[in-house]
Amino acid sequence: MSRVHDMGGQLGFGPVPVVVGGEPGFHADWEARVFALSSALLRAGAYNVDEFRDAIERIPPETYLRTSYYERWLMAMEGLLEAKGLA
What backbone torsions phi and psi does residue 3 show, to the nearest 5 degrees? Predict the structure, then answer.
């Protein structure tokens, strides 16, 4: 089954199909490592979910649109860790 949503609640980017079931959790090993690192940093209190989401939303649109989901996660983590003096 597939549903269609607008990207980030914004119009004008075209539909984004959401596939339910049958999709792998990660498409590459590095994506799983980014997920694990982000989870560990959240649990350790390096940043919170709101800060993480805000960091992703502050990625410039041209960069956001040309990067993958976990590339955005990595960029957000790097920015937060640098801003907090942890990297």
Answer: -115, 160
Question: Each residue of 27-76: pLDDT tens digit?
Answer: 999 999 999 999 999 999 999 999 999 999 999 999 999 999 999 999 99
Q: How far apart are CA 72 and CA 87, in angstroms?
A: 17
Q: Which tokens belong to 59? A: 């990625």
* Distance (Å, whole) CA 70 – CA 34: 7
Long-range pairs of 3-9 with CB within 8 A, sequence gap ≥ 24: none
**Unique residue bearing structure tokens 């959401």:** 18
Joined tokens for residue 62: 């041209």
Rounded to whole angstroms, the Cα distance separating 50 from 1 reads: 31
Sign of the Cα torsion 69, 31, 51, 62 reads negative
Between strands 2-6 and 15-19, the pairing is antiparallel
What's the confidence (pLDDT) of residue 42? Answer: 97
